[in-house]
Design goal:
Chain lengths: ~450, ~290
């Protein structure tokens, strides 16, 4: 076979017995007991973790795999890295495979950093000569030079992770299978890991990358596979697959109503509508919108407030805001009964696509209610004035700014033409320019 | 959003192609692959040696304490009180020369039986030939053996025993002990993945095996052909072989040793094939 493919998978299937791959017979006694129990026992429940997965990956491609927990992503990587066998189907892997399904595979807490570096490297498939050659580089990447001869059980968890990832990051197989390893560590560490992954990708190696970090999938991968129920449900450019995945994961909810409970503080209703319209009316990128949050205060001593965060279809946080403290209520208890907080979001701020509002109700500045999907709504694009561009308008937000185009060299006053920018945004040209920007203290 | 630069594939050299497919029934041993992973095997041995006595007060002292304590007890009860024959040798060295290879075997058996279950985190997260795990565990026991063997040399000097040319037979005899430990270890470790009963069987099994092996008594108590039949316990051949090679007991354990070699190889081969057959379930079941 030629080397124009790196991975070919054909109808891979994997059957697991529930729950979670436990053996049917934990002890000999169970085996003997069940042998005598004739055929009365029910068939063990089983699940197809992979249910006919076929795909091809070209050398140098970086493919992101996304899907819900239990969708079969990790099983796919386990099959491809030969940890477990498929039940049926086959796959061909062209080249050396390195798999990184966990940070710190093979680490032993009693051994020193140096010893673990060699051990883990060998387990992940490095030759000793290769480890010798890269030793300094790995230690430097991990920033643990001072503690390299200390047993890793004395390491902080951050140091441990850094060393463990550093070893794995210096693997040089032609094909790298990576599972969710970026979900650990602090922000700085994650950034470093993502950077390293990007470097590896640019070196032209083939990467299969499972992650819940949709932004990482979009920025690192050239193609995405969305797996659900053990099958590939969508495959294509990461941007398109990610937003479809997010849309399918959240069903739109322009209005939500909660049942009354006995709790002293309850969320009752949330809603989103165009300014002057009602929930369910279409919202476009131009429409000013109103978010309403109604909640119940049954505690005369409580001071309540809300805070909300808005995410876009790629699950990227657009903003996290709260209303300014009401001067009259500051440090005073809130009125009891139904309270309503309303937020006005101007038009020409949100881009098109799915948006999710995460709401927190705070009592005396301490969160008491968290509702990660308080509202989920779609902002539609408008088709006017796009100057012939009909693709997706890029960007997390879609603000309208005031533009001027003039020719200062001319003798006249400089407004030689009306300005393309203004023409392309007729909706704003008659507005006060300040209204295009979000403001907290609207009347 | 931008697609990463697609460099031309750097695979102009020969590209190994791995075919992943379900295996059925008995599978090949994969010794070639095991050899390719020999560096990993070495690292696993080295890890086991390094870790074995970490955070123990006596450290490597445990390696010699066990056979010495057993020798003392055996010498008192079997040697003194019961007056057990010892092929004309002082009873302490008669039993110790047997206890040194026995301890290597029984430790290797017990630790390899638990090796797969103890390596759960590796087995479910990374691929390598699983045979490396029990093999490394048994090999790591050689360090303990060397320490105990030093004590044996000291004792021989104390008793003024100088071995003859038969001592050359010692390395193959040690190999026989290793093969026996590994053969039993492969069976037990693979069984242990599915049946944790093995954990309870192992101490019982080693105790029985101890008394079925001529450690506290000489095999010369048996007449031929029963002595040869007795050799089907490979450790009987090992132990009598050690005594013959080191202490110069009268006759070489010829037919008995041959029986032991055959039994040990059969144990190893069956263990290895059973292990390979069960291997595909390890990651899912362990």
């Amino acid at each position: 076979m030629s080397s124009d493919v790196a991975i070919v998978a054909e109808d891979l299937r994997k059957l697991y017995r529930l729950g979670e791959g436990r053996p049917r017979h934990n002890t000999l006694r169970d085996l003997i007991a069940s042998s005598f129990a004739r055929r009365e026992r029910t068939e063990p429940a089983s699940i197809w973790a992979l249910d006919g997965v076929s795909f091809t990956v070209k050398p140098g491609e970086v493919v992101g795999i996304l899907g819900r927990n239990g969708a079969g992503k990790s099983t796919l990587l386990k099959v491809l890295s030969r940890i477990t066998e498929p039940t049926s189907g086959w796959a061909d892997i062209h080249g050396r495979v390195g798999s990184l399904l966990e940070v710190g595979t093979g680490f032993h807490s009693e051994l020193t950093g140096r010893e673990n570096l060699y051990l883990s490297g060998a387990i992940l498939g490095m030759r000793r000569a290769e480890i010798n050659r890269k030793f300094d580089e790995i230690v430097e990447f991990a920033e643990v030079a001072r503690f390299i001869d200390t047993p890793v059980k004395h390491y902080s968890s951050g140091m441990y992770l850094r060393l463990a990832f550093a070893v794995a990051a210096h693997l040089e197989p032609e094909i790298l299978l990576v599972d969710e390893v970026l979900a650990v560590g602090d922000a700085a560490f994650q950034k470093k890991c993502l950077g390293k992954m990007g470097d590896v990708a640019r070196e032209g190696r083939t990467i299969l990358f499972v992650s819940h970090n949709l932004v990482a999938i979009e920025s690192l991968c050239g193609r995405a596979l969305w797996i659900d129920g053990g099958r590939i449900v969508r495959e294509g450019p990461p941007g398109a697959v990610v937003s479809e995945y997010v849309q399918a994961s959240f069903s739109p909810a322009n209005e939500r109503i909660w049942e009354e409970t006995d709790a002293p503080i309850q969320l009752r209703r949330t809603g989103v509508r165009p300014d002057g319209g009602s929930p369910g009316d279409p919202i476009t990128v131009r429409t000013p919108i109103v978010l309403e949050f109604e909640y119940w205060n049954g505690d005369p001593a409580a001071y309540l407030s809300v805070s909300m965060a808005v995410y876009n279809g790629q699950d990227f946080l657009l903003f996290d805001v709260c209303p300014p403290l009401e001067p009259d209520w500051r440090e005073h208890p809130s009125p009891t009964g139904l309270l309503r907080t309303v937020c006005h979001i101007p038009g020409d701020l949100l881009n098109d696509g799915l948006h999710r509002v995460s709401l927190i109700v705070l009592r005396d500045h301490v969160p008491v209610i968290r509702e990660p999907e308080a509202l989920v709504f779609t902002v539609q694009d408008t088709t006017d004035e796009r100057d012939g561009w009909y693709g997706h308008w890029p960007g997390a937000i879609r603000p309208a700014f005031r533009w001027e185009v003039n020719a200062p060299g001319r003798a006249s006053d400089g407004t030689a033409s009306p300005g393309r920018g203004e023409r392309s945004r007729p909706a704003v040209s008659d507005k006060d320019p300040g209204r295009g920007a979000p403001s907290r203290d609207r009347p | 959003m931008a697609a990463p630069a697609q460099l031309p594939p750097q695979m102009e050299l020969e590209v190994p192609v791995t075919r992943i497919r379900p295996s059925r029934g008995w599978v090949a041993l994969g010794l070639g692959e095991l050899w390719e992973y020999r560096e990993l095997l070495w690292f696993l041995v080295w890890r086991d040696v390094k870790v074995r006595y970490k955070q123990t007060a006596l450290g490597a002292g445990w390696a010699i304490l066990q056979p010495i304590a057993t020798m003392v007890v055996f010498s008192l009860f079997f040697g003194r009180l019961a007056g057990m024959p010892s092929d004309g040798l002082p009873y302490p060295i008669f039993s110790f020369a047997a206890l040194v290879p026995w301890t290597f075997f029984s430790q290797g058996l017990a630790q390899s039986a638990n090796s797969l279950v103890g390596s759960q985190n590796l087995i479910t997260k990374v691929y390598f030939p699983r045979l490396s795990i029990p093999i490394a565990t048994v090999l790591a026991g050689l360090v303990d053996f060397a320490l105990a063997f030093l004590v044996l040399i000291v004792m021989m000097l104390a008793y003024g025993i100088v071995p003859g040319p038969e001592v050359m037979a010692l390395p193959p005899l040690l190999l026989l002990a290793l093969v026996t430990a590994l053969g039993a270890g492969l069976w037990l470790s693979a069984l242990n993945v599915q049946f944790r009963d093995v954990r309870y069987i192992v101490p019982f099994l080693t105790q029985l095996w101890l008394f079925l092996t001529p450690i506290a008594y000489p095999s010369s108590l048996l007449e031929e052909p029963w002595r040869t039949v007795y050799g089907l316990n490979p450790m009987a051949g090992v132990v009598e072989g050690f005594r013959w090679a080191l202490l110069g007991t009268a006759e070489p354990p010829g037919p008995m040793l041959a029986a032991s070699v055959i039994a040990a190889l059969a144990l190893l081969a069956s263990g290895a094939f059973y292990f390979r057959r069960m291997e595909k379930t390890f990651a899912d079941v362990v």
